[in-house]
Amino acid sequence: MKQKNNDDNKNKNALFLYIYEHKKLIILSVIFMILYSLTNPLQLWILKPFIDKMFVKDVIVEFQAPEKLIQKSQYIYSYFPNFLRDNSFTHFIKNALTKKYIFSQRQLFLLISIYIIGISLLKGFFKFLHNYLLLYITGAIIKKLRERLYDKLMNLPFNFYAQRKTGDILSRFTNDVALLQGTVSNLIIQVIEKPAEILFLTIFVFIISWKLSLVSFLILPLVAYIIYLSGILMRKYVKRIQLKISDITQQLQETIQGIKIIKSFTAEKIMLERFKTDNNNHFRQNLKSWRVQVISSPVIEFLTMLGIVLVLYFALYLVKTDDLTSGTIITFLAALMSMYKPIKELTQLNMNYHQIKIVFERINEILNIESDIKEVADPIEFTGLKKIITFNNVSFKYSSDDREILKNISFSVNVGKTAAIVGPSGVGKSTLVNLLPRFYDVTSGIISFDRVNIKNYSLETLRQQISIVEQEIFLFNDTIKNNICYPHSDCDFERVKECAKLANALEFIEQLPNGFDTIVGDRGQTLSVGQKQRIAIARAIYKQSSILILDEATSALDTESERLVQEAIDNLLKRYTTFVIAHRLSTVRNADLIIVLKDGEIVELGAHEQLLKKNEYYAQLYNTQFNK
């Protein structure tokens, strides 16, 4: 329970920290909010004289400043030095205060009309300013939050992506952030503007008649309880709604990525039924939250009308005993009904607060994740491999509860040499090479480049010197040129062409209608597997790193594509210290060192011919593959 409270406080503090960064603009917006709220009673104030004076035939209105104000001004005036007392402006003010003004009904109507128009213009002006400032502040907060979230996603460890559903991550980045944008400004308005409106109107109605005000406020505790209860229910439903949105986003993402499999298995109806189930669950949770939202409004409206009835009943009594005019009663009722709207909107405060709190908790959950890949305080820049790569007693497991994937791995690879890693599926081949760029860190042991522990190198320079070509190639929905020189926007086109030539990709690229400017589509779907592999190899060459990782780069290719890709790989091997993960053992015959894994351990080391002569596990794998 204590941990949960600490997390809640941390989330609240983080949210208010974002808002606090824009404190100056918020203060300015608050000032405009208060001025806007003040215009409501100022508009209503004119109702009393309008009703009392304008609906009486041939009325003449006399006006003079209150006696106390006149006496006070004369008292202050007596302390003025002679040169100020004789000043014409001072005389003008004195005369203006003491003068009795007489207005006809037409003149009074003109003055009231000017007053109403002037207040309306001020009200609109203040509303525009505070709304615009709030939208700007909210937009800036959401912009920064998106950037922080995206930056965090770029720096999260690989095990985070292995353990999370993609749809859940996307939902937090899109739906949750969008929901925040729609509610943060409302929350600020509900925290400041609506209470200010209610406060000014409350002061106003007490000034008009404190007795009527006390009667009308009898229902206030009941309204407050309804607001509180609505907020508790909304918190529960909002959390469920966000989880259901994550499920929908996950299925949508899987449908788009796996559409070929879905169609080939004629699973469209099954997928549709699954989607309908998730969508229906989301709809049912929304219905529950909507019930809470819509029921609170009529209940509060009913209580407000009940208060007005009580006021009217009590007003009938006060008319006989107090000096209550028609204008006073109507103005009081107008002010009371004006309070209904901000009170009604204030019921959303608790709901919006809990909504923002839950959404921010989901976003903050990602922002607060600490990466287990840490840099040392003063990292060394890795400028490229000069001598040797060494694995010294390396073991690895994904978490403390998992079994060890790799156990006591030890070997060395000299610069410019090729090491092949072979073994059955699931033995840890890809895991081993993923330790080189520190996608994961070793559980025990040391990996060193040129006798320096790779943990002492900066992550940026370490990864800049390692190129990876995987079996499942990912290309960005961009031009071939931009994919080859990724992530650089200022491509050296001649270098791009040279890299494409070395990767055996130049011929097919030049045959495309737009050549290097051809858009490859989402994940490179307009290209064949072999073409994508060669683009990936060209990308690896363009990077100009010193270490290359080939993760089963030819396993999914037809014979002709494999030949072209293998030729491209052979061009690569001359330039790099290379690690090759191979399913087809025919592709590793020329490797300088073959590392044979079994159950996460090295069982054999050596060149192809040496291992065949030993006639042990490698020879068994080789003979099985070639039916010897």
Tell me about this structure.
64% of the residues lie in helices and 10% in strands. It is α/β, with parallel strands linked by helices. It folds into two domains: 331 residues, ABC transporter type 1, transmembrane domain (ABC transporter transmembrane region fold); 129 residues, Rossmann fold. It starts with a helix and ends with a helix. The N terminus is likely disordered. It is elongated, with a radius of gyration of 38 Å. The chain has a six-stranded mixed β-sheet. Strands 4-3-6-7 form a four-stranded antiparallel β-sheet, with no helix packed on it. A two-stranded antiparallel ribbon has the order 1-2. It contains 23 helices and twelve strands.
Summarize the structure.
This protein is an alpha/beta fold. 64% of the residues lie in helices and 10% in strands.
**Overall CATH class of the largest domain:** Mainly Alpha
In percent, how helical is the residue content? 55-70%
Biggest sheet descriptor: 6 strands, mixed
Instruction: State the strand order across the main sheet.
Output: 8-9-10-5-11-12
Beta-strand fraction estimate: 5-15%
Low-confidence stretches: 1-12
Q: What Rg do the Cα atoms give?
A: 38 Å
What shape does the CA trace take? elongated
Keywords:
alpha/beta; 10% strand; 4-stranded antiparallel beta sheet; ABC transporter transmembrane region fold; 2 domains; Rossmann fold; 628 residues
SSE topology sketch:
Blueprint: H1 2-20, H2 23-45, H3 47-54, E1 61-63, H4 67-78, H5 82-85, H6 88-98, E2 101-103, H7 105-155, H8 158-163, H9 166-208, H10 210-216, H11 220-257, H12 259-264, H13 268-321, H14 326-367, E3 388-396, E4 406-414, E5 418-422, H15 429-434, E6 444-449, E7 452-453, H16 459-464, E8 466-470, H17 480-484, H18 493-502, H19 506-511, H20 529-543, E9 547-551, H21 559-573, E10 577-581, E11 593-598, E12 601-606, H22 608-614, H23 617-625
